[in-house]
Design a protein that fits this description.
Blueprint (H helix, E strand, L loop, with lengths): L17 H13 L9 H13 L3 E2 L5 E7 L2 E9 L3 E6 L3 E3 L3 H9 L6 H9 L5 E9 L13 E3 L5 H9 L9 E5 H4 L12 E9 L10 H6 L6 H18 L10 E7 L1 H8 L30 E3 L9 H17 L2 H6 L33 E2 L4
Parallel strand pairs: 1-12, 5-11
Antiparallel strand pairs: 2-3, 3-4, 6-9, 6-10, 7-8, 8-9
């Protein structure tokens, strides 16, 4: 029972950090919340704040590498759909790519100490998930269905579920989680047309391309999406998800008016996350608290944010990583400002008000023409 929500941190009872499990349970006991307008609202508000303060957000612009010159970070090279390949010069780069990708691919292991490289090699990523998105010709709101989530287990042996996913297998009726967007935000007319229910079914899923019938090369080129083998694996995954969901909603397979599947390969293509996970480093005792990287790195000018950091995964954990890296750059007063302490002092009105880069006395943190943010999308 205590591990019933283990999918929220992606580890079976035998491997999970106890404090992670306890913290997650406490989170739900205090009350779970859903943003009015959906999760996109959080991104939209953040984007608006960045742009209001002179920053720029580049969509469809993957970061190819973080530039290092004379032993410190000097900027980011991006491939923009609209601008082509560009170099954005900056004395400070905050990477929210996962720890492995940041060190091994974006920066390069040669720029880090042997100790750091060995730590990254030992690092284990969290399991990946697949999602079945459904539109049902059924109005659960009109039926008076409660606003709740469902955890579905084929049997009490959670260890077997995680072991199967690690082997690249999807069970006949796997462990699943159901979230119903139409009920969580019934006032949002964009969630689904009248009389239709927007519902998602999630489960552990293999992260390797081979488990989905394609090669690493096909994944990197994007050709995997048209692979007959991949399409067959996606259909099999959807059928398994429907079998699990039918335990709560009998006949659900006869009520589908819209269906889409996102696999770990989908997540990897959109987010660049190693293995397609959204949880960052594995939440085991070895990767908990100080077992995870902090905001500051040994490479001058390079800072970290995201699900692999010490603040943890999920919306709250990743947002806190942003606060932590800001406090590292601007001082501890940021914590008081974020949490509303009266003595926090006034906040900057624009990026040029921020103090100079603490690692370089000559270069400002942001100046006109340089206040650009590189994001992995």
């Amino acid at each position: 029972m205590l591990a019933g929500q283990s999918g929220d941190y992606g580890q079976p009872p035998s491997r999970a950090a106890a404090l992670m499990a306890v913290g997650l349970t406490q989170h739900y006991l205090e009350g779970a919340w859903f943003p009015k307008g959906g999760g996109q609202v959080l991104s939209d508000r953040l984007a608006a704040a960045i742009e209001e303060h002179g920053g720029k957000i580049l969509l469809c612009s993957p970061a190819r590498r973080i530039l290092v010159e004379a032993g410190r970070v000097t900027g980011v090279e991006i491939d923009s759909h609209h601008l082509g390949r560009r170099v954005v010069r900056a004395p400070i780069v905050i990477s929210n790519a996962d720890y492995k990708r940041t060190v091994n691919e974006l920066v390069g292991a040669a720029h880090f100490s042997k100790k750091t490289v060995a730590r990254v090699e030992r690092a284990e990523m969290s399991p990946a998930f697949g999602v079945l998105y459904l539109g049902l010709s059924r109005d659960l709101k009109a039926e008076g269905h409660p606003r709740t989530n469902y955890w579905i287990f084929p049997n009490p042996d959670l260890e077997a579920e995680y072991a199967a996913a690690a082997r690249g297998e999807v069970g006949h009726t796997p462990m699943a989680y159901i979230s119903i967007a139409s009920l969580k935000d019934p006032t949002n007319r964009r969630v689904a047309p009248p009389g239709i229910t927007n519902l998602q079914v999630m489960s552990l899923a293999p992260s390797s391309p081979a488990a989905w019938g394609v090669t690493e090369a096909e994944l990197l080129s994007g050709a995997y999406r048209k692979s007959a083998g991949y399409q067959a694996k996606k259909r099999a995954f959807a059928e398994a998800m429907l079998r699990s969901a039918s335990r709560v909603f009998p006949g659900i397979d006869q009520q589908i008016v819209y269906q889409e599947v996102a696999t770990p390969l989908t997540h990897r293509r959109y987010t660049g996350a190693t293995g397609g996970t959204s949880y960052g480093l594995a939440h085991t005792p070895a990767h908990f608290l100080r077992g995870r990287p902090g905001s500051k790195t040994e490479l001058p000018g390079l800072y970290l944010a995201g699900a692999s950091c010490r603040t943890g995964h999920g919306i709250a954990g990743v947002m806190m990583s942003g606060v932590a890296v800001t406090a590292e750059l601007l001082g501890g007063r940021v914590w008081g400002e974020v949490f509303g302490k009266e003595n926090a002092g006034p906040r900057p009105t624009n990026l040029t008000a921020l103090r100079p880069d603490p690692l370089s006395s000559s270069a400002p943190l942001a100046s006109p023409g340089r206040a650009e943010a590189a994001q992995r999308r």
